[in-house]
Amino acid sequence: MDMSLYRDLFVSESRSHLSAFSELIVHLEESPNDSAAIDELFRHAHSMKGMAATMGYDQIVGIAHTMEDLLGRIRSGEFRLSPALTDLLLAGSDALARLVSGIESGSDVLEDTTALIERLAAFDPSDKAHANLDPNLPLQVADNTPETPVVTHQFRRTDSFKSIRIKTETLDHLVNITGELITNRYRLAESIRQADATECREPLHQLTALLRDLRDEVFKARMLPFSFISERFPRLVRDLARKQGKEVHFQLEGKEIELDRGILEEITEPIVHILRNAVDHGLETADERVMAGKPFGSTITLTVCRDKDHVEIIINDDGRGMDPESLKLKAVEKGLISSGQARQMTQEEAYQLICKPGFSTAAAVTDISGRGVGMDAVREAVHELAGVLTIKSQSGMGSCFVMRLPITISIIHALIVQCGPFEIAFPLTVVKRTLELKRSEIREESGVSTIIMGDQQLRLRSLRQALHLTESSKEDNALLPVVVCDVGGILLAFSADHISGQQEIFVRPLRSPLSHLRGFSGATVTGDGRVLFVADASALA
To answer: Is the pLDDT of residue 382 over 80?
Structure first.
């Protein structure tokens, strides 16, 4: 019988078991008396052993079998999970992952696992050699590179509780077709308007409703729970903390919240950057915390919450925090801003300095991170997803990073504004409100234009100036349309020529050479065939 026909299914099922391994092992290190978790981990090892035996993968059978034996001894109460045993089980999990990757790639030569199996089989908690980390088993911090996305997607039918696996490329194609249908619907509506074909308006209305239903169903099929990417985070934090000699408790809340698969894939690496920075430089050592009157152990909390058509990913730590004045001073020393700019900065703007390329508050950059290293990439990734990155902190108390993201990125609601010959779409995720102001209401202070909104003074940026267009020659008493956007927790105002209204658009990524355009994250085609650019408010500012 040709078992290669079942290889893809084996790899897919194995990854499901492996994704739970690390999370459960790290959880058991903090809660060794959780018998349900021990039973679940035992079942995963047993299932993987059985599948590998059926396929004839003896090396996987050997590791899974010895891990199963160790878990059985823990299960029976013979001994408890210790840091040394945790390291050993995690090494076994990593080896299984590498073997599965080798099988997936079709490699005929897999790594020699004899030594690892011997260490697993010979583990003795009473042996002093196992009291500390085995010198022959180097601790490796979990890789920060996101895994290659699985080639299949679980699609559930809630009415019958059945599920099937389909290729992600098929779902991507469905989204593209839906987006094209929405674009063509606007073209059809424009043609009907120009021809004054009143008899077509009712069918167009029905078509609009059907397209909306189709869009919702396609998006449901692409939605995945946050746990799809979060299962690696406890292991990442645990390994980093152990390498740094720190005691860190990691909490994850809201992992059942669902997002578009495309957003999950793009946001994984930014989250990893923030977690690595938090453990390495955001959190103090145990001695420093005790001297500061804090608990011995640190806490990092990752919270995911849904707000209508947005999701907020919040990463909190109770570490040393950041001082805005120190950030300003460091930025001036590095030549990133002038002294005058530093004096005018608010606290929120000062915290955003860590997202400037090359900025770091670390005394020495380590092999793991420096506070700010990679944060420019984090902000860039969030903005490309039409999201907002907000940074809050309090010196001595900790830091908070909030990523506010749309549920999906392919088809979005946008505010359309006109500026000269260009039409620009601002994602509604960043728009706070619109205004109409007289030119006399604009103030000039040190060469910076500002406006008053309520009790707030906002900086005003001309879209014409941002796009290198000549300013319009409107009369001084003419009303000036203004769009107020949230950029990293800072409200900024953009003046335009005209606000056209809201529209649902199908966003296409910019290809070369348009990908080099500053201030835009994508484009779409309007109903009458015009190109409309999607704005990156942060870059335009």
So the answer is: yes
